TrEMBL record:
Organism lineage string: Bacteria, Pseudomonadati, Pseudomonadota, Alphaproteobacteria, Maricaulales
Feature: DNA-binding region: 34-53
Protein name, UniProt field: TetR family transcriptional regulator
Domain HTH tetR-type stretches: 11-71
Pfam families for this protein: TetR_C_28 (PF17937), TetR_N (PF00440)
Keywords: DNA-binding, Transcription, Transcription regulation
Length: 188
């Protein structure tokens, strides 16, 4: 019997629309994100886009929610693997944060610019970060050192985002490795 061809999982309409919105923001900037631009980019009808996202604000909320969901999944996977291997969840999280390839700089800047008009859009990001840090700091042998490492990783990400990373790739790798070493602690 011949092997049946495997099908790629189909993306949901919401995902296709969100992908299109990300491309618009990345290519044209957040100021050009409109329902009409997403209609053109996605190939959906205006009614199809509006059915999934009734307003531009809902579209931006969807973009933020998708980023939060992706980060949450990455964090939970890193924590699970660390527990299974008997490693520190904290060092696994820092390693994951350092190794994870962020969204494009232009897209993230556009999203931040859009959120500047509506600061409440960042509430899900704040909530995720607060919960994640509270969970992990509760088990840190040195919570102040853990906070310092978190802030350093955030600084690396913001330097990337703002195009102000002045480290060579080798320097960056050494800094990231040192941050992981600082936080690596035997699991108690």
């Amino acid at each position: 019997m011949a092997n049946a061809p495997t099908k790629e999982p189909r993306s949901s309409a919401r995902d296709v629309i969100l992908d299109a919105a990300e491309r618009v923001v990345e290519r044209d900037g957040a100021g050009r994100l409109t329902i009409d631009a997403v209609v053109r980019e996605s190939g959906f009808s205006k009614g199809g886009v509006l059915y999934n996202f009734p307003s531009k604000l809902d579209l931006i909320k969807g973009m933020v929610a998708r980023i939060v969901d992706a980060v949450h999944c990455d964090v939970e996977l890193a924590r699970k693997e660390a527990r299974e291997q008997g490693h520190s969840e904290l060092s696994a999280l820092i390693r994951t944060a350092c190794e994870k390839e962020p969204h494009s700089q232009k897209f993230m800047m556009g999203l931040l610019a859009a959120a500047a008009e509506h600061p409440e859009l960042l509430d899900p990001v704040r909530g995720l970060m607060t919960q994640m840090r509270d969970d992990l700091l509760a088990n840190a042998s040195d919570p102040d050192l853990a906070r310092i490492v978190f802030l350093a990783v955030d600084g690396l990400h913001f330097a990337d985002l703002l195009g102000m990373d002045f480290l060579s790739p080798d320097e960056r790798a050494r800094v990231e490795a040192r941050l992981v070493d600082l936080i690596s602690e035997p699991k108690s």
